[in-house]
């Protein structure tokens, strides 16, 4: 019977799954398939699993339960296998790699940091600090009909915005990365200037949270969105 696979853990993990039911319209109990020194946490399914709200929540609930008791290699939502035998074969074939990953992630969780910048404040800053931008803006506002002025101003401002956002994002990354065991920077979306995931060990958790708080207080005109601790999806 097809299986939905949530995560991989060590065979020694307590794996407390009592009361958990899995994804799908007819949820089956969440259980473990053990092979050698590893376990895969799974549930039986008889349908194609789509990212519906309940199923996404169930997927995360399983990871959270397992993380309470030990290290987890969380799989992204939607991973399935044909049957128990296929899962067992994968665990045995890749045992050393999975055990190495579990050791690398031991005691760690993922924290996500996203940031966006107040665009109006940035434009005001550029007009204040760039003589050329200020001159062009003053001429346009004064009624100069030269059609080249708006184009030049737009190109100048766009270049300044890109350069300043990249510089700010680089500075933010440099302030956070020293407190993490690993990090993954992704392309920002939806107007953000920063999208970074960090792998933080429990021993460094308090220092990392204090650094987050300092950023919020010290960096003006930037809105931060912090998320974590999370299963270390980005580092599996």
From TrEMBL:
One of its GO terms (biological process) is gas vesicle organization. The keyword Membrane does not apply. Pfam families: GvpL_GvpF (PF06386). Keywords: Gas vesicle. GO terms for cellular component: gas vesicle. It is found in: Gas vesicle. InterPro entries: GvpL/GvpF. Belongs to the gas vesicle GvpF/GvpL family. This is Gas vesicle protein.
